[in-house]
């Protein structure tokens, strides 16, 4: 698909600011300033809906989509993921700037939601992070279907938080898969895929940024294949792996210092692991393995001590409190 972009100074600056970050988050609370200029559109490409959140990960793919020869006709998001979604946020700013509707759909498969989607007359939909399974009737609305972007090398690490588990389990390789969506999590045929080595110092944030960059480079190819009704590369979901969603996991539950150190990196910045220091919760932002922590705060294991280099008293997710309900093993 040739690059015939929907552009503006506002969109260009927003994309530059995003890619200047060293880490990406899945927190759906990103904001943008009010735009001061008008968008410019060229080309006559397919009518495309974007589905996602006001998060770094989703925005990376929305900006990449707007760089292609497409006509953006609407944005879909899910209000239950974060309080910011019901107010002004990065997605609402972009939708208003482009003059297209932002559909805040609590239940995307309900009849009224499907009617709202159908009213946009989409040729295709691109989805980058969503917390609802799209049912068969909603999937059938765009003429050529839905493209889902999943940050794992499918069929490995199906499920809602693959980047977390990739790091936490010490996988040597990560991936990002652009595939045709079907009415089951992360199971449709593959239209494009990239694989990257996991670095020893990767956090979820640094790995997410690298995967988003690799996936954004493939978006045009995958969307071309979707629009052409390319059947893609089918796979058996059961031949891979599935991992569940993650809360703030307790470091004391790890079996070793090595496992606990991976848990810290996997939790940053989306869902930091935690422990108790001096009777109070401490959410770990950075750690290292030492022979002995001596007087430093840490968690001791048979293979060494996990020295906590940086902690916070609150969780940092949208609850941002010491007793966050996402906390695993909280009293």
Please describe what this structure looks like:
The protein has 331 residues and is of the alpha/beta class. It has 2 domains: 6-239, Rossmann fold (3-Layer(aba) Sandwich), CATH 3.40.50.170; 251-312, no CATH class. The protein has 8 helices and 13 strands. It has helices spanning 9-19, 56-66, 90-98, 111-118, 136-139, 162-168, 204-227, 257-267; strands at 6-7, 40-41, 47-52, 71-77, 102-104, 124-128, 146-150, 173-180, 190-197, 274-277, 280-290, 298-301, 304-312. Strands 5-4-3-6-7-8-9 form a 7-stranded mixed beta sheet, with helices on both faces. α1 crosses α2, α2 packs parallel to α7 and α6 (162-168) packs antiparallel against α8 (257-267). The termini are far apart. The model has no long low-confidence stretch (mean pLDDT 95).
Helical segment count:
8
Helix proportion: 25-40%
Question: Strand order of the main beta sheet, please?
Answer: 5-4-3-6-7-8-9
Low-confidence stretches: none
What's the β-strand tally? Answer: 13
Number of domains: 2
* Shape estimate: globular
Assembly annotation: single chain
Q: Tell me the β content.
A: 15-25%
How far the N terminus sits from the C terminus, by CA atoms, comes to: 53 Å
Q: Mind telling me the CATH superfamily name of the largest domain?
A: Formyl transferase, N-terminal domain
Radius of gyration: 21 Å
CATH architecture of the largest domain: 3-Layer(aba) Sandwich
Average pLDDT, all residues: 95
The top-level CATH class of the largest domain is: Alpha Beta
User: Which class best fits the helix and strand makeup?
Assistant: alpha/beta
Largest sheet: 7 strands, mixed
What are the secondary-structure elements, in order, as H or E?
EHEEHEHEHEHEHEEHHEEEE
Instruction: Write the CATH fold name of the largest domain.
Output: Rossmann fold
